[in-house]
Amino acid sequence: MAVKGWQRAQDPALLVLTSLAAGPMHGYALIKDIESIAHVTLGPGTLYGVLNRLEEQGLVEPLAAEERRRPYRLTGAGAAALRERLLVTSKVATVGLRRLGTAHA
Prior knowledge:
With 105 residues, the chain is mainly alpha-helical.
């Protein structure tokens, strides 16, 4: 059973950074990749707002436009920030799953 609202509560910045860890992508490709890995659909307003904030923080950078599409890529700082966040998230998940296993044993 899923908790209502948890899917929407997923951090869009984390989803974008995780998606860009696969390589440079433009907006539509990001939306589709995020849908495939997290089953979350980011609207264009949310996506480009997140990309702007991440760019201001130096975590992503735009590349030269290809036709009418502008791809983005993860910077070194973005990769480091993503790695740190994923390690913390992984630790929380591991502890939570272990506790659930112990509680239900």
